[in-house]
């Protein structure tokens, strides 16, 4: 038995589209920042064979749920590596809105991979653990690590992995997570990726631009240049969403409130606040800014839109094991 906690990450250079959906290999590399406010905690217990359990079981927030194919896939990988055939009991508490573009699957499968490997007695390196996590959800490989993280796209199972770029973030960057809508999104990420890859005429340019953005973003991080990091992240996000708007048929993850917040962020910048927006596959924006500006940004946002829920997130840790 083992319990692990993993935190969500927000991609600054995003992954959007799989060249191999079975192996979860992306078309382009990506770069993210792990956050300290949203997390998943998962306990995995491999049961003795003499028990009456005839299949894996899954309990989410105290309620028994069907075991999804992705969970089964992850557990089978762990069993294969350990040389086991024991069934598992998985219990999960998710402190992230699910399927709302806040990387709940990243923290969920990073925690499952870590807890399952530990419970099975596997001695995995962080790189190997990131490869395991990738099989559950691509972005989960990044949540194995804290701080700024790079996921190398690779060309096969072993060359597609994440590693820390800057594990200890020693400059005052923060992310303000803005909850516009906590309901599950209508177009799941996997379906949205497939549609963008198959039909958007902009998709090849997206891959090329995103891949080249890794080096530029890495330089901005090394320079501790928060404004440059924000500029690059905002541009990358809008380039990704251009592939959804240009797909056939077109679709979007923007909500009316999302667009209003983007407009406000642009206005804040004209008044001297260094604030930038990024957005994954969901309506909930994440705003990048310096720590000293965060309270002012939240105050202005909530003055304009009083119903908004804002959470100020700092750089978070990598996966950790719990007692």
UniProtKB/TrEMBL annotation:
<dbReference type="InterPro" id="IPR005935">
    <property type="entry name" value="Mev_decarb"/>
</dbReference>
<comment type="similarity">
    <text>Belongs to the diphosphomevalonate decarboxylase family.</text>
</comment>
<dbReference type="InterPro" id="IPR036554">
    <property type="entry name" value="GHMP_kinase_C_sf"/>
</dbReference>
<dbReference type="GO" id="GO:0004163">
    <property type="term" value="F:diphosphomevalonate decarboxylase activity"/>
</dbReference>
<dbReference type="Pfam" id="PF22700">
    <property type="entry name" value="MVD-like_N"/>
</dbReference>
<dbReference type="InterPro" id="IPR014721">
    <property type="entry name" value="Ribsml_uS5_D2-typ_fold_subgr"/>
</dbReference>
<keyword id="KW-0067">ATP-binding</keyword>
<dbReference type="InterPro" id="IPR020568">
    <property type="entry name" value="Ribosomal_Su5_D2-typ_SF"/>
</dbReference>
<keyword id="KW-0547">Nucleotide-binding</keyword>
<feature type="domain" description="Mvd1 C-terminal">
    <location>
        <begin position="176"/>
        <end position="308"/>
    </location>
</feature>
<keyword id="KW-0443">Lipid metabolism</keyword>
<keyword id="KW-0444">Lipid biosynthesis</keyword>
<protein>
    <recommendedName>
        <fullName>diphosphomevalonate decarboxylase</fullName>
        <ecNumber>4.1.1.33</ecNumber>
    </recommendedName>
</protein>
<dbReference type="InterPro" id="IPR029765">
    <property type="entry name" value="Mev_diP_decarb"/>
</dbReference>
<keyword id="KW-0456">Lyase</keyword>
<dbReference type="Pfam" id="PF18376">
    <property type="entry name" value="MDD_C"/>
</dbReference>
<dbReference type="InterPro" id="IPR041431">
    <property type="entry name" value="Mvd1_C"/>
</dbReference>
<feature type="domain" description="Diphosphomevalonate decarboxylase-like N-terminal">
    <location>
        <begin position="6"/>
        <end position="162"/>
    </location>
</feature>
<dbReference type="InterPro" id="IPR053859">
    <property type="entry name" value="MVD-like_N"/>
</dbReference>
């Amino acid at each position: 038995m083992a319990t692990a906690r993993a935190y969500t990450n927000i991609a600054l250079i995003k992954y959007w589209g799989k060249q191999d959906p079975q192996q979860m290999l992306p078309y382009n590399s990506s770069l993210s920042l792990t956050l300290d406010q949203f997390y998943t905690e998962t306990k995995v217990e491999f049961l003795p064979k003499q028990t009456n359990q005839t299949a894996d079981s899954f309990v989410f927030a105290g309620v028994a749920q069907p075991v999804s194919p992705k969970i089964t896939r992850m557990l089978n990988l762990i069993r294969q590596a350990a040389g086991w055939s024991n069934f598992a009991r998985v219990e999960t508490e998710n402190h992230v809105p699910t399927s709302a573009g806040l990387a709940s699957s990243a923290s969920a499968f990073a925690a499952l991979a870590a807890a399952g490997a530990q419970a099975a007695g596997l001695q995995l390196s962080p790189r190997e653990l990131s490869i395991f996590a990738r099989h559950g959800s691509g972005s989960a490989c990044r949540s194995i690590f804290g701080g700024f993280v790079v996921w190398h796209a690779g060309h096969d199972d072993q060359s597609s992995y994440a590693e820390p770029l800057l594990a200890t973030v020693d400059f005052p960057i923060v992310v303000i997570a803005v909850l516009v809508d906590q309901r599950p999104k209508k177009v799941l990420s996997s379906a949205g990726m497939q549609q963008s890859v198959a039909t958007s005429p902009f998709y090849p340019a997206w891959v090329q631009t995103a891949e080249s953005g890794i080096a530029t973003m890495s330089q901005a991080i090394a320079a501790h240049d928060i404004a440059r990091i924000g500029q690059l992240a905002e541009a990358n996000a809008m380039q990704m969403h251009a592939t959804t708007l240009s797909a056939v048929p077109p679709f979007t993850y923007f909500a009316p409130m999302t667009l209003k917040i983007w407009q406000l962020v642009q206005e804040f910048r004209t008044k001297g606040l260094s604030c930038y927006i990024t957005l994954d596959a969901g309506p909930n924006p994440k705003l990048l800014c310096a720590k000293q500006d965060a309270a002012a940004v939240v105050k202005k946002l909530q003055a304009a839109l009083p119903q908004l829920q804002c959470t100020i997130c700092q750089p978070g840790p990598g996966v950790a094991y719990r007692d």
